[in-house]
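Batch 3, record 17
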Amino acid sequence: MNPILEGLSALAEPTAILCFLIGLGLGLLVGVFPGITISMAVALATSFTLTLEPAQGLAMLLAIYVSAQYGDRIPSILVNTPGTPAAVATTLDGYPMARKGQAGLALSISAIATTVGILMSMLVLVFLAQPIAAFALRFGPFEMFALVCFGLTVIISIASNSLAKGIFAGLLGIALAIMGLDPITGDARFAFGQAELTGGFNFIALIIGLFGITEVLDQILTHHEHKIRPISSLGRWWPTKGELKRVARPMAQSGGLGVLIGVIPAAGGDIAGLVGWNRAKAISKHPEEFGKGSIEGLAGSDTASSSTLGGAVTTTLSLGIPGDSVMAIMLGSMIIWGIQPGPSLFERRPDIIVTIVAIMLFATIASTIVSLLRTKGMTKLLDLQPQWIWGIILVFCLVGTYATTNNVLTAVQMLLFGLVGLLLRRVGIPAGPVVLGFLLGPLAEANLRRAMLIGEPIEFLTNRPIATVLLALAIGSLFWPIISKRLKNRAARRAPTAV
Amino acid sequence: MTESEDQPGVADGGSGVAATAPAMEKVAAGVVLGFGVLMLVGARGIALRNETGGIDPRWWPTVIAVGIIASGVWMLANALLGVSIDREVDPSRRRGWTQMLATVGGLAVVLVLWHFGVTFLLLGPLFLVAINWIYGLRKWTSLLLFPAIIATLLYLVFRLLLKVPL
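Prediction for the assembled complex:
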């Protein structure tokens, strides 16, 4: 059958449609509740989707991923609290607009900007993913090792303020993945003679522990009862033609920047949103309005933050390097379903690519429609007690992890990972590189060992320009935060003398 | 909740972002170092079916263990030299510690009882009643209605629909 028809027909089944609708609803809810991250929701949903067909599971996970981009703008605008980190920049002008009685207009402009951003990013996925994958097909083991190193170092440099802690987080993930059987010889490592340990740690227990349990325990630890009442007067809803014309330019330019940022592994919507807001301010005729309720500022930030989605999916599918932590979780799910994302995916399973693009497109359209309806009921959801949400998440974390193996010990593993995650977080060690290290560690090891069995490393460095460039980029991305900080400090020291 | 109960914990300071904690940084670096050394010892002790030498199954764990030790040394140097690094975490509350530890204790009890055959359909709602009580929610909606709704949901979705043996 034609891959396009095959990919679309997998979504036409009633179960896939039901999964899509559940994911859509969950994603919108996840976005609305500050504190529940998209990573946590996708991690939790993963445990329930493993027994489904890939198209059905992807329908739920990707629908959550896309629709949460819409839901998370609502608390940013109505209570000045971003639903997820990607909506941080939305608060800059969204909340001031709401305080001026323009909450409805802010919500509709935000929804339109998010739609434009996601659709722009989909162009990257549609037109660039296959050429990137085709190029990457030429990669040998040494190039693949260098690519994995690059993906890991980028997330390490972005995820933590301390390079030492970021590197440790990545290495910890790799270390956790070592337990089990050697990928080449099959020797047991760190199994201590126990047959149960040769299977290694459970991926679902790891991600639900690190993203679900850790998040809830940290919220219990830090929760403060200072609540801002949501703004309930929404005011005018639809933008005028003049307002739409005014936001077109910042949307186009900030969205373009967001698309570029999205292609960089691990650079997510939070960074893009702030960059997009700055860009919109730079090109505006009224920069003085920014931060005080500028419609251009809101459009710029929301287009940019949502336009990272396609890039994140592109690197995941074409290179097997997750674009963000949500994609890292999804990558793990796809591996469990027997689908290995990477350069050869486009040759082996083109239908899956079609399915993924279709789900993202349908989820964008459906989320836009839901978001543009007058969503007064959403303000009521913001009044829900956080303690109830903690309870629901904890119970579902337990059931979700248990359901993957029907063994209580898997849930015990999850609780232990949750406690380790809490300790790591309080010390300032990020969880993202741990998960990525766990996923990419075996890939890095197998490719490096194969490469070293074939030839000497020095020979590879001289004969393999792609691998050399990727390794140079990996080292550069690792040390760039330190170099850029020093350059900024030097510039700051020179500034007073210049004046 | 009273004002004093909601005061930030001493260790984490009282501002919007948790303060740097030099002692904790040193302890963390020590734990990382210890973990690296243990892993190195474990890696060298991996039993192989065929001793080939060179790039064998011990090689990669050894490389990673050395990397962990190096990052531990780096973290320790930062801690000893007083390099200030923002942890980007919210300050904790004293009461938050009690509630968090009680929640973890509750989860541990649930897992032990579940392991020994008590059904989760009973344990789950009881856990919710207990933690809502600990969090200070004493209304009937929190102690009866909410756990009852979750119990019904667990039964309908997981037991009946998904056939998960809870």
